[in-house]
């Protein structure tokens, strides 16, 4: 009896296996039919490529290293609304030859994504069954944007944005962006590698205003002020729209990075091109004084600074030009942290002093050990008037003069080189910057060398005020002689006032 039960169970198992095998075969057939009906034409890589396709900001730049899959992401993003008859899009490259590559890629993707999608070579136009349209064309000169006068688009994309020397084309195309469909948002999208003739303005527009991968209010690229609705408008004072920069790296594209051959090609390039195209660095340029600087290595998220670290500030004063104040902290191991910046214009000495003190008061428990100010601010004004420094000290904002001795500029530059250098054992630099110091972070990599004196920076530029303030600070000997000096309760008064009223 028991033997019969075992035989029956065995037969039942065999039947079940045959049924399962049949079911699996049928399922495979169904899956193949589904794939044939709805093929996967583009699967974004996890990370930046996916973030780019999911971004909701009005203007987004997806840029950085070569080979990160930026062009494919741009071609895929525009398809999101091709089932809407009101979707009207424009994709642009600088030259016709460069455009051909994009067109070829689109011909591989679009007919698979939408059966019935049609490409017209003569019109440079994709049309979709819904009635949606995508123009693909080139725009070589600024004046060529006038071809789009009177037209309206819901989506505009520019591949390799830094190929345009000025922002004129991008700004004009923004005026062509509009929709009357409440279900159809409007977007401008761009991809680019660092470098190229438009590197500076693209960096000002997308890179400088905010830490990477964070949405920010759109700003004017010259003044840095947030673009807002004017007085009298129902949205007066509100930001016009948001921007975002999404960094790309070669490793984001496993299909290209896996073999290592493309990486080897990029590694063979000269230093500037290698850092731009392989590392995706926007902070390096030909002739730059501080090519050691890297956002990945020197910029950090803000953190609570230990009370034992010695805090101090430095300032480069200007009225018509920028006044820059930097707050720093000296660590016990000798490293420097720049944790706050202030950039203001057209402020008197009294006004600047009040702003500084207000910031420190609101921060609480700052325990600023000292301040260092451009020594030229001690020059007397008129016959009897107080100097700029004395005026600020009278407001309670105390300073001591910076080192302006012979050779101090060269020494300051060399000291910054030393601090920027990465320690091979520790993997750390001697200086770091909180990512909220956006202006200093954007300016420092752009400081050029003096062509006549490569040991110094070019002093004729108008954006070296942050560098000067930084130089004053790091040359002020902020690290005490003893670790006991870091205890606020036992901190000696190392700097005695030369006058009871005025500073140190």
CATH structural class of the largest domain: Alpha Beta
Taking strands numbered 1, 2, ... along the chain, how are they ordered across the largest sheet?
Answer: 3-4-5-2-6-7-1-9-8
Instruction: Determine the number of helices (DSSP H or I, runs of at least 4 residues).
Output: 15
Question: What kind of assembly state do the chains in view correspond to?
Answer: single chain
CATH fold assignment of the largest domain:
Rossmann fold
Which shape, going by the Cα principal axes? globular
Please give the domain count. Answer: 2
Give Rg in angstroms.
30 Å
Stretches where pLDDT falls below 50 for ≥5 residues?
482-502
Q: What's the overall average pLDDT, rounded? A: 82
**CATH homologous superfamily caption of the largest domain:** P-loop containing nucleotide triphosphate hydrolases
List how many beta strands DSSP finds.
Answer: 18
Largest sheet descriptor: 9 strands, mixed
Structural class: alpha/beta
Strand content: 15-25%
CATH architecture of the largest domain: 3-Layer(aba) Sandwich
Q: How helical, in percent, are the residues?
A: 25-40%
Distance between the termini: 107 Å
Can you characterise this structure?
By secondary structure, the chain is an alpha/beta fold. 31% of the residues lie in helices and 18% in strands. The chain is built from 15 helices and 18 strands. The strands form 3 sheets. The protein has a 9-stranded mixed sheet, sandwiched between helices. A 7-stranded mixed sheet has the order 10-16-13-12-11-14-15. Helix 2 packs parallel to helix 3, helix 3 (70-77) packs across helix 4 and helix 11 (349-363) crosses helix 12. It is globular.
